[in-house]
């Protein structure tokens, strides 16, 4: 099970930190990803992180603004989002896997608006 | 970046019909790294098929994937009521970003 939290309404230029708590599998053995979906739109891969946190990759449009991290002791995945833009408005999903995630959370909505 | 296009945008069919969904890539997808997802309203996506044709455990065998290079197909042999949903293809053969197609909606005729 993957449970996201931390979404909400934020003004352009603001920050949010998303969290995802995992249970039911050995979190430290898996790459993890964040994938987002703008309202009424398709899916967009955002970032992923290696099992031990030593490798991270990002979508170009979020590089330098978003930071993915994890705490294996807490079975938790995070996404720190800074300098948010209107186009970042989406449901953000935490997902298990490097590239083709096989298990997904229910998502948390981030709305960027003044 | 590999761009995926899916056709048709919407497929209107009846239960029991065969559904054929297409996914085309702007360049060859390396190492057969193509996946298909199903998404129902208000739900998270569900991985159905990875590596072009490998079904995830628990996915009914009426779902099958095929293709190579730039052209891929998801076939649902006989539609069940629970299969009406949006289907996305995704490539993960190149370095990130792992791009998704825009989706095909399968709705009830």
- Helix/strand/pairing class of chain B, anyone? mainly beta
Please provide the ordered H/E string of secondary-structure elements of chain B. EEEEEEEEEE
Poorly predicted runs of chain B are none
Q: Please give the order of strands in the largest beta sheet of chain B.
A: 2-10-9-4-5-6
The share of residues in helices of chain A is: under 10%
Structure description:
The complex is a heterodimer of chains A (114) and B (109). By secondary structure, chain A is mostly beta strands. Chain A contains no helices and eleven strands. Chain A has strands spanning 2-5, 8-10, 16-22, 32-37, 43-49, 56-58, 66-71, 76-81, 90-96, 103-104, 108-112. Chain B has a six-stranded mixed sheet, with no helix packed on it. Chain B has a four-stranded antiparallel sheet with strand order 1-3-8-7, with no helix packed on it. Chain B is built from no helices and ten strands. In chain B, strand 7 (63-68) and strand 8 form a beta hairpin. Classes of the chains: A mainly beta (114), B mainly beta (109). The A-B interface holds A 35, 42-45, 48, 57-60, 93, 98-102, 104-107 and B 33, 35, 37, 39, 43-47, 50, 56, 88, 90, 92, 95-103.
Task: Kindly summarize this structure in a few lines.
Chain A is 0% helix and 49% strand. Chain A is mostly beta strands. Chain A is globular and about 40 Å long.
Features:
heterodimer; A: 114 residues; mainly beta; seven-stranded mixed β-sheet; four-stranded antiparallel β-sheet; 11 strands; globular; B: 109 residues; six-stranded mixed β-sheet; 0% helix
Write the layout of secondary structure elements.
The complex is a heterodimer of chains A (114) and B (109).
Chain A: E1 2-5, E2 8-10, E3 16-22, E4 32-37, E5 43-49, E6 56-58, E7 66-71, E8 76-81, E9 90-96, E10 103-104, E11 108-112
Parallel strand pairs in A: 2-11
Antiparallel strand pairs in A: 1-3, 3-8, 4-5, 4-9, 5-6, 7-8, 9-10, 9-11
Chain B: E1 4-7, E2 10-13, E3 19-25, E4 34-39, E5 46-50, E6 54-55, E7 63-68, E8 71-76, E9 86-91, E10 104-108
Parallel strand pairs in B: 2-10
Antiparallel strand pairs in B: 1-3, 3-8, 4-5, 4-9, 5-6, 7-8, 9-10
